[in-house]
Amino acid sequence: MNIQGPTSGFKNIKPMTRKERRALKDKVALEKQRLMNRTGLAAKMYRENAPENPSELLTLKPDAAGFMADADRFHSDTAGEEFLKRKASYARKQEIYNNTRNTRAINEEARWKKIEESKHQEEVYWAKQRELGVKSAKNKSCVPYDPLTLAYHDTHDGEKLRYADSLVRYRAKVRARNMAKHGDTRVG
């Protein structure tokens, strides 16, 4: 339908030909015309990829958006592709396991090194303490007397203790004698 511009103040419409009138009655042609007149990205993609004749409906031009060569479409080694995918997945898992194993081994080595270092420091500490003799002084008796052999030490302190103990025994005997002598008849 062509509309010509007004030359005399009236809108003159050019009459349609038979072919155009039949096309308006043909639903398929009408739908095709409406598809071509649409706006938007989907309509643009349709116009660019629309076939020129019905025999091209099942095939696309090589420069079309959805074109894929027959060699790419009809490959027969799908099992091989799946095998390669599984193999790649397995290799990736093994790589993750190896990385985890190596990381844990390094961490374990560092942990054991730290334990050995602390053990060594502890041994050095105790060797120093033994050398100083401060800790062993707690077990040392403050009295120069051996309770196992019941003997005094052969030192000046041992002689002083022996003298002090003898003095205590002597005073006990003197007291017992004085009590017996001066008043208590029960002491014999």
Considering the chains and any ligands shown, give keywords for the structure.
rod-shaped; two-stranded antiparallel sheet; 188 residues; single chain; mainly alpha; 4 strands; 61% helix
Draw up the topology in text.
Layout lengths: L2 E2 L7 E2 L4 H8 L1 H11 L3 H9 L20 H4 L4 H55 L12 E2 L4 E2 L3 H27 L6
Quick synopsis:
The protein has 188 residues and is mainly alpha-helical.
Question: How would you characterize the overall build of this protein?
Answer:
61% of the residues lie in helices and 4% in strands. The chain has 188 residues and is mostly helical. The strands form two sheets. Strands 1-2 form a two-stranded antiparallel ribbon. Strands 3-4 form a two-stranded antiparallel sheet. The chain is rod-shaped, with a radius of gyration of 58 Å. The mean pLDDT is 84.
